[in-house]
Amino acid sequence: MKVISKTEQSQLATVYIAMNSSGKLVEFVESVQPPLTIEEKWVLIVSTLFGCPVDCTFCDAGGNYKGRLSMDEILFQIDYPVRLRYPDGNIGTKKLKVQFSRMGEPSFNPAVLDVLEKLPSLYKWQEFVPSLSTIAPQGTDKFFDRLLHIKKELYNESFQLQFSLHSTSLKERDRIIPVRKWDCRHMARYGEKFYNKGGKKITLNFAVSKDSIIDEKSLLRHFSPDVFLIKLTPVNPTFKARKNKIESMISDGDLLIRELGEKIRNAGFETIISIGELEENQIGSNCGQFLQAFLRSCEKMPEAYTYKVI
User: Fold this and answer.
1) Where does the pLDDT of residue 80 fall: very low under 50, low under 70, confident under 90, or very high at 90 and above?
2) In the β-sheet with 13-19, what is the strand arrangement from edge to edge?
3) CATH code, domain carrying 282
């Protein structure tokens, strides 16, 4: 693997594009989470597939699927920014977070689990948070059984698991995520096994649009607030979202998403509203944005993908 391009310099995030020996392209990100500095928290977001076969309705990473990354190709995305900043592998930031959530559904690639097993032997860190975001596809039970074992053996309370639901309506969820996947009952059972009391709660993530169906009573029927928390984030400006006429709930201000968050909070759930920095849209570093969509398109999007690629 070698890095062939990146976005122009930003204090917030950098998107790297790498090519493997077969000429396949992949992207990965390093970022900070304001107001925290990089000395306090550093986030690496890595890809697990070349493209993605799922093709969610608002995600520019979907489509053009060309297979799985190897363990070494995933590790490259971590090692490259680490060695740029910390050549000896002794990571100086107080908290390092590695998210397996860039291009691709991670549970389709067992090499993700190999990476999780190998990482503790490669670097020294003060605090490490591995994070895996999944739609929980049908047929991936063996992956999640092994993930549970690795979490208990190596990471215990530090692991952050996120299920991407996007809607409490089964019909709406099937439209947004057009593959077979676990139902809420299955996710709830697994989450309860995964959770350690006193550790990180399991995140239920919703990318919120103006038409989102998110019902707090439905959430309570399936998920315990003692085990699960709710994360609301706006649908980011992507070519796919525009094509499918999906409008973000915060396009006219963030009042509606905050009202929704208050309803869910009043139902008993810890609730995170993650709006982020608007500059991330320009960089293309937000979740669901894929820089190659901009590189392949002559169409301009003033609200996103405006940073130059160098």
Assistant:
1) very high
2) 2-6, 13-19, 25-31, 41-46, 95-100, 128-134, 160-164, 202-208, 228-234, 271-273
3) 3.20.20.70
